[in-house]
């Protein structure tokens, strides 16, 4: 079977395929924003298999499939009962594809989703395989940047994008930088504590594609031309003793908060984050003092998970053209702002 | 956003709003009793978020939303994975409202559902927040009383209602007595073991609204004019040592069983209970010897959860008028008695 | 209420009823194979109550109900919250039947599903009650044999069927042999390690119905006329010390693998298994070296769970005639082979 049929890694995505998904996601907006409904997947069944808990991702895929008219069988938990009895991923995959028309799988072990997908012709979407891939997140991220830029009259060509936080272990930023490298040319600034830098092969890849990459160990510089700051959490559990010591004096150098935005960036710099963010005091994560600031795009970003995941399902199941012809108006009450003023 | 948009507490309900919900619930009966189906919420998604296990309540909300044609994303478990990572209720709420058209939330901490609701414009229904509120239960209770009274040719004006069991900690009876106080005038008798009496501010509230309230410490009196006995479980775990001792000789004074009904009440006294009831021998709960007695209304009461929760969803999502115009007959087999002879 | 209304045990099934289910399952194939969709159960709600984890069975029932157009409320976990508080199965059953139109229940305790069913008129399907029954498995097994035989131009009359593995504790083979005994006459060979033989009352029952039964303690004989081998796992945890010792030298005598098929059986012998199978090295289970062999019918068998479970729901809910009149073509992409080449 062809890799086209699954969505396992961003590496399988070229510019044309990403462009297509961005276009289809835009087409899904009237449904995602609950102005229209469609039933194109009426009768279809999604197997939403979460071998690892991840409520937001699970609900997002579930809701996206429902919005297309399909039904969802959820499974949550660290082990499947039958796999605990020695069933192979091959058998599980083959059995599930007899029940479902598409499968989303999240699993703590890198490579397991690909192993699962190898045993079936039913489209499989990688919902995150441990330190591996989480392609739908990277797709909704680039969709968000594209949408925000359209709103602001900007374009990806020549944009300046800052990725900051834990760039070594954060799979989100790894996948995102690969997708970004299909566009541009871009100016990409990478800011992380010493020891948590972006892997050099990824920096080399992006540079080889003609982008300008700059790496720093502090946010204390001028970002007045910055278009996007993409923040991720710095988990101190990742630190060696040595790193811990050197980080003591540095932690303020990685704070994405209102001061940083007001003093170093511009009024058009948007702030993104893969969520969840740690809102506890002392967490080295995106500060809650930005709540309510229109530059904070994190909730628009998570909202965008619905049209992008709808686009992924619709494309893999080949109803992406059909949807447009089969929409009808929503009949229930939808608040003017489905979220808070933080939209 | 307005409180009208959520259902967080019975305190936000006035007589007009309760009357409306009772009317809409009645309108839902053909669907709840499976003579008709409707699809008015086709395409809508409910987030059914149970941070605390409660199978019956979760399934009841789930089924009610499905009967209106919507889809449901269930989440069960004591912690959400992302909240365990330090995510605030504010962030969780905002994210979920991007996925769902309505949210039911149950949470062990009082006030948490209101905190969650404050971050979203999507209608939020409190499915129970620990010792706090559980408004849909009180609404289905008053709907049951109203329906039973109609069947028996009675009216709420002048009715005699007995609340018994643990009246101190039972949130169900607190919410119910508030709703009852909007009707009447009523005679309300409160019977509980010493130390588990109804909080005095609630007694004062009800009295100030013109109802006659009487408090006792035993069921050993004449209840021949009683219309409703609403029983709740006495959990001995609530007892101090002192209370435990004094309760030894008293426990028979709080037994709602066939003897009590036959000897002290009338053939038209109906028996209600919020369920679940503890059927184990020695439990201080509604006796199973009433099973099969037509006065036992507890299963009619739980059945009524469906039309009432449909009414809540339909009202908050503003399809309460539409439903009536869009019903069509059920096409599958429905047993004459969907339940047992205990209907 | 009549036993006809529930599906609790294969003992309640006569030849006519099984024939009917086989016919209805065949009628469901276009939907199960995703060439057609139907909405006959639109508005209906299934309570899918798993008191014991069993992902494949749960998802199979769930998907089957969805394919008929219904909605599903899943419940998983070893205890229901309310049953942990002392609620009786009677109360739980009665409450759930107020919410749902049909109930599937799996429970670790034998007899518990029947107890549950006794309290309701809503159709209840036993999804496995510990060492007791799992009738839908036996039905999909006989449906598989029937379907494979049709493909091969064979008939059940005079067929030779081998059941092997743990025939003492395996509830699957107990139920299957009862259903098989309604057909035939058959030649049934039973091969198990000493101490794990088929219970003699079952052998007597089958013999009394005119079938030829032969019991052996090794697969080392000529099976060149064999039509079906139905393998089950031998769980060494079942063994006494004495059995363990005697099994050491025997384990190869119970190996269903490519060698056994190639050397002792024929090219038309099909291999079945209830799944899951233990694929770990050293497990005494159906060997993975048969993967890809067209005689391996285990994945066609699990696929057959969908049309058979659809047939069970459709029959109990009396829409089995209606379905045929209300199908329309699927509009999404369905791979030519929904599974692997192992179909």
UniProtKB/TrEMBL annotation, chains A, B, C:
Molecular function GO terms recorded: amino acid binding; aspartate carbamoyltransferase activity
Record field: catalytic activity: carbamoyl phosphate + L-aspartate = N-carbamoyl-L-aspartate + phosphate + H(+)
EC identifiers of the protein: 2.1.3.2
Pathway, per record: Pyrimidine metabolism; UMP biosynthesis via de novo pathway; (S)-dihydroorotate from bicarbonate: step 2/3
Domain Aspartate/ornithine carbamoyltransferase Asp/Orn-binding span(s) in chain numbering: 158-315
SUPFAM superfamilies for the chain: Aspartate/ornithine carbamoyltransferase (SSF53671)
Zinc among keywords: no
Coiled-coil features, chain-numbered ranges: none
InterPro entries: Asp/Orn_carbamoyltranf_P-bd, Asp/Orn_carbamoylTrfase, Asp/Orn_carbamoylTrfase_sf, Asp_carbamoyltransf, Asp_carbamoyltransf_Asp/Orn-bd
A biological-process GO annotation: 'de novo' UMP biosynthetic process
First-tier enzyme category under EC: transferase
A Gene Ontology term for the protein's cellular component: cytosol
Gene3D superfamilies: Aspartate/ornithine carbamoyltransferase
Keywords annotated in UniProt: Pyrimidine biosynthesis, Transferase
Domain (Aspartate/ornithine carbamoyltransferase carbamoyl-P binding): residue spans on this chain: 5-146
Top-rank taxon: Bacteria
Homology family: Belongs to the aspartate/ornithine carbamoyltransferase superfamily. ATCase family.
Function noted in UniProt: Catalyzes the condensation of carbamoyl phosphate and aspartate to form carbamoyl aspartate and inorganic phosphate, the committed step in the de novo pyrimidine nucleotide biosynthesis pathway.
Annotated protein name in UniProt: Aspartate carbamoyltransferase
Classification lineage: Bacteria, Pseudomonadati, Pseudomonadota, Gammaproteobacteria, Oceanospirillales
């Amino acid at each position: 079977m062809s890799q086209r049929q699954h969505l396992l890694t961003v590496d399988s995505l070229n510019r044309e395929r990403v462009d297509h998904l961005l276009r289809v996601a835009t087409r899904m907006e009237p449904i995602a924003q609950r102005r229209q409904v469609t039933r194109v997947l009426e009768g279809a069944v999604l197997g939403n298999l979460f071998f690892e808990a991840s409520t937001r991702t699970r609900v997002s895929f579930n809701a996206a499939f429902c919005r297309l008219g399909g039904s969802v069988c959820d499974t949550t938990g660290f082990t499947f009962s039958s796999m605990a009895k020695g069933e192979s991923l091959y058998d599980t995959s083959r059995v599930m594809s007899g029940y479902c028309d598409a499968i989303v799988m999240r699993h703590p072990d890198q490579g397991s989703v690909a192993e699962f997908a190898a045993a079936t012709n039913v489209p499989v979407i990688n919902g995150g395989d441990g330190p591996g891939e989480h392609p739908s997140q990277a797709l909704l991220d680039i969709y968000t940047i594209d949408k925000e830029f359209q709103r602001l009259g900007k374009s990806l060509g020549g944009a300046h994008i800052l990725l900051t936080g834990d760039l070594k272990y954060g799979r989100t930023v790894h996948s995102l930088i690969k997708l970004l490298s299909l566009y541009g040319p871009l100016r990409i600034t990478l800011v992380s504590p010493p020891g948590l830098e972006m892997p050099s092969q990824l920096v080399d890849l992006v540079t080889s594609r003609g982008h300008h990459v700059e790496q720093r160990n502090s946010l204390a510089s001028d970002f007045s031309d910055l278009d996007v700051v993409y923040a991720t959490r710095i988990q101190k559990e990742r630190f060696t003793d040595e790193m811990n010591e050197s980080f003591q004096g540095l932690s303020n150098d990685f704070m994405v908060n209102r001061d940083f935005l007001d003093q170093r960036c511009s009024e058009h710099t948007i702030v993104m984050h893969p969520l969840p963010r740690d809102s506890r005091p002392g967490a080295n994560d995106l500060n809650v003092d930005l709540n309510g600031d229109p530059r904070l795009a994190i909730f628009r970003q998570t909202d965008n998970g619905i049209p992008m995941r709808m686009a992924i399902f619709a494309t893999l199941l080949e109803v992406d053209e059909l949807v447009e012809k089969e929409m009808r108006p929503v009949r229930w009450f939808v608040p003017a702002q489905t979220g808070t003023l933080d939209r």
